[in-house]
Amino acid sequence: MLLVSIFKELRLLSRDLHGVAVLFIMPILFMLIMSAALSKGNELSRSGEIVLLAEKNNTLNQSFAKALAEENLNIRQGDLTDLALFQNGLQQGKFELLVINRNSAETLLEQDQGLELHLNPSVDLIWLSGIKGILQKHYTQQRLNDYFADNTIHLENNHLKQVKKIEQQVNQELEQKFTQIRSYLNNNMWQERYLNRQGDSVNKPNSVQHSVPAWLIFGMFFIMIPLSNVMAMERQTNTITRLRLAQASAWKLVVAKLIPYFLINQLQFLGMIALGYFVLPLLDMPMFRLSGDFTAYAVLASAVSLAALGYGLLISVIARTTEQAVVLGGGGIIIMAATGGIMVPVYIMPEIMQQIAQFSPMGWALTGFQNLLLNHYHLQQISPILWRLAAFAAATLATAVLIYRNQLKKQVRF
């Protein structure tokens, strides 16, 4: 009996070879994609240009730049009077980071001003963390070298050989110097200023500005599951035949299907925003809030929804069963999410994976949301992304309608 049952299960599996194949293919693909996405090594020296700004003939800044250049960083020195010019270059993406040093070798430690970092909100945070470590190491070393350059302690009345008094005076001066050093090391070294593409100061980016849009897009694309269930039920109950006999055109039937799911996508959009705004602060996480004109977000959400519906409808008309739709559609969504920066931020990926991410509709959508959130783009500035999503939606919807029309004709002949 056991052998008979085993052979029966094997025969059933043989009728679903695509499902069995996915059990092997999907983990392999996912393993390869995620391994490649997380394979980025230490590439600090290969990143964009860093500009050190200070007053002319600042010996401290010159020594600082020389030490950073020895780390194979792309360093350029500039005059502080040209700050506006370099800020404009930063906004255009010519420079990765501006480091402003308002101190000199003669500046007392207790009067030292922290380094000002001017950077774009969409900067690679891992790269920035590594750069800040290098900056701190060499700048602190240069400041302390200058401080100890003339570190001779002069004692008064030492010709009287009063050992006790000399000992006390030496200890007092040493303690004073070490107190100044401790105070300097405990000071905040950074004054970060994030400038968007319009040149306006914006808040420091946080994790929720990636996670909320990322998983919102991921959820919107999974509208495919209820859509494919409805399409499968039409075939199983012969509803598709009755619709064709009623002389309903394929495109009208598709539009009638898509409108309710489009509205569901918009409810997802509003629900995720509300969740990020009201719930995340209760969990001791940063609040998620939209910056800029809400119209741009609404248009982008609509474009993402149309792309998701086009993909979902195409899978639904291709798949013969609900199980096939879930396997094919769900697998495609996971691959698009992995390559598009949903699961792993694009800036963590190596260059080859960053190029692949440019072909993922989910990657386009995420870039659009982050440009609105971080760089405060206007609707016109994200128009290239909107056109990509619209083209993807049009292509998938048109293909799905053609396939659906042929299916209707076949059902009538039957």
Automatic annotation (TrEMBL):
Q: Name the residues that span the membrane.
A: 20-38, 214-233, 258-283, 295-319, 325-349, 385-404
- Keywords in alphabetical order: Cell membrane, Membrane, Transmembrane, Transmembrane helix
The cross-references to InterPro entries, in alphabetical order and at most eight, read: ABC-2_transporter_component, ABC2_TM
Database matches in Pfam families: ABC2_membrane_3
Question: Topology versus the membrane, per the UniProt entry?
Answer: Multi-pass membrane protein
Q: What is the species listed in this Swiss-Prot or TrEMBL entry?
A: Neisseria lisongii
The name on file for this protein is ABC transporter permease
Q: Where in the cell is it found?
A: Cell membrane
The keyword Transmembrane helix is assigned to this record: yes
Coiled-coil intervals in this record? none
Annotated ABC-2 type transporter transmembrane domain residues: 23-401
Q: Which domain of life is it from?
A: Bacteria
List the signal peptide residues.
Answer: none
